[in-house]
Structure to design on (209 residues):
C-alpha cells in the first residue's frame, strides 16, 4: 500500500522540525527574541519617572525585607528623596524598556561628614516582574561607571540577609563583604541580619575635590 502524503501547515512543520532537532524558520526568530530580551535604555531619572519609581519601591516595602521601611511612601516623598540625591550631585538612574520604567538605581552619601564625601551607598530596585533577566546587572554597571566618572572612591551596599541574588550581583562587580550585623532589623515578625559589601573604584592618590 502506498503511503499517503499530505502537506503540513507551517505550525505543524515547525513542531516536526523542532522535534527532529532542526530549528524552523517559523520559530527561530521567536525563540531568539524570547531567549535574548532587549537591553533596556539607562538614563537619568526625571520628574515624570516618580510615579513608576514609587510603585516599584512600595512593592518591596509591603512584600519584602529588602527595605526596612514598613509603610508605603507617597510620590511626593519619593520626589523629595530624588531631590536630595540631585542636590548632592549624585546619580539617580532608571532602566526604561518600551517606554516603561522597569527599575532604578542611585547613590547616596554614606555619611554627611565632609571627609566621607568620596564614599557612597548604592541602591538598586527592579520591577518584580522584570527580575532574573540581567537588568539589575545593566543598571548597576551604569551606576558604578557614573560614580567612577565623578571620582567617587568607595561604594558600599547594604543587604538584608539572606539574599543570595543581591550578594551575587554585588560580588560580580568586585564587592567584598566587610561587615555583618546580627538581628538589627525586625520586620514581618522576625529578626533580620544585615551585611555590608564594599568596593573601591580604582582611584589612586589624592582626589581632586
Amino acid at each position: 500500500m502506498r503511503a499517503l502524503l499530505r502537506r503540513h501547515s507551517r505550525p505543524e512543520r515547525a513542531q516536526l522540525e523542532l522535534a527532529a532537532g532542526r530549528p524552523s524558520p517559523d520559530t527561530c526568530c521567536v525563540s531568539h527574541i524570547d531567549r535574548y530580551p532587549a537591553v533596556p535604555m539607562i538614563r537619568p531619572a526625571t520628574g515624570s519617572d516618580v510615579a513608576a519609581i514609587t510603585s516599584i519601591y512600595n512593592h518591596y516595602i509591603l512584600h519584602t525585607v529588602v527595605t526596612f521601611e514598613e509603610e508605603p511612601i507617597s510620590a511626593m516623598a519619593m520626589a523629595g528623596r530624588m531631590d536630595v540625591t540631585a542636590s548632592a550631585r549624585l546619580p539617580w538612574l532608571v532602566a526604561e524598556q518600551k517606554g516603561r520604567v522597569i527599575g532604578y538605581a542611585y547613590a547616596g552619601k554614606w555619611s554627611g561628614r565632609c571627609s566621607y564625601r568620596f564614599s557612597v551607598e548604592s541602591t538598586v530596585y527592579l520591577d518584580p516582574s522584570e527580575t532574573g533577566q540581567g537588568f539589575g546587572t545593566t543598571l548597576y554597571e551604569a551606576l558604578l561607571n557614573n560614580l567612577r566618572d565623578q571620582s567617587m572612591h568607595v561604594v558600599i551596599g547594604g543587604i538584608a540577609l539572606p539574599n543570595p541574588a543581591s550578594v551575587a550581583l554585588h560580588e560580580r562587580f568586585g564587592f567584598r563583604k566587610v561587615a555583618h550585623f546580627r538581628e538589627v532589623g525586625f520586620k514581618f515578625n522576625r529578626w533580620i541580619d544585615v551585611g555590608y559589601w564594599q568596593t573601591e573604584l580604582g582611584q589612586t592618590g589624592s582626589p581632586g575635590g
Remarks:
- The chain has a mean pLDDT of 85.
